Amino acid sequence: MNVILRAAGALAVLTALSAANGLQAQTGPAAPTAPVTKIGFINSQKIIASAPGRDEAEAQFRKEMAGYQAQVQKLQDSLKTIIDTYTKQEPTMSAVARDGKQREIQAKEADYQNRVRQLETQAQQREGELVRPIMDQINKIIEAMRAEDGYSMIFDVASNGGSVVAADPALELTDRVIARLKAAAPAAPTKPVGSPVPTPSGVKTPPKKP
Q: What is the pTM of this model?
């Protein structure tokens, strides 16, 4: 998200602010007053889980994933049939015929793997199509809150690698973002296009047959 800053820098920012306040106290009232930095934070995972349109997008995704899995299963069954047939016929095959059949199986396996990779790429693209309207709405609301309330920075404590270990609960904006999301029109998921696809993280390429 362009408006959700990584939490990794939050600790450094808070440390810098504390140091600046200490310096001001030492120099006395004559020292110039530093501008106030207003900071807030959110939990993006909680926001996404509560976002209108999320359940519909997930349901659509599961539906399309079922179609994808059917395609993969059909390809896998076809490859298995070829391998099983070869295994039964191998003892009676000549060396030349055996080598030729093995090359054919290797080519089929390569085609299978290539097709699975193509479908995984389509899965990632489709995931983006379904999630983008929801994420755009979240970004829009967070940016509006930042501008309206004069926040200098809004951190995401749920981001990967976050280092914030403690924060004033009064700085959290998560519930306010969720309230605005629910008050706004829900983001509708994009209609299906192209091949059915699954959740990328759940795709497991079947092991290569011997």
A: 0.57
Joined together, the tokens standing for residue 68 give 């994808």
For residues 125 and 179, what is the distance between their CA atoms, to the nearest angstrom?
29
DSSP secondary structure string for all residues of 145-191: HHHHHT-SEEEETTSTT-------GGGB-HHHHHHHHHHSPPPPPPP
- pLDDT tens-digit map of 100-120: 999 999 998 998 899 888 888
Residue type, 208: K
For the stretch 34-74, pLDDT in tens is 667 899 999 999 999 999 888 888 889 888 888 888 888 88
Long-range contacts of 8-11 (CB under 8 A, 24+ apart): 8/159, 8/161, 8/162, 8/163, 9/155, 10/39, 10/41, 10/155, 10/162, 10/163, 10/164, 10/167, 11/163, 11/164, 11/165
Q: How far apart, in whole angstroms, are the C-alpha atoms of residue 100 and residue 7?
A: 58
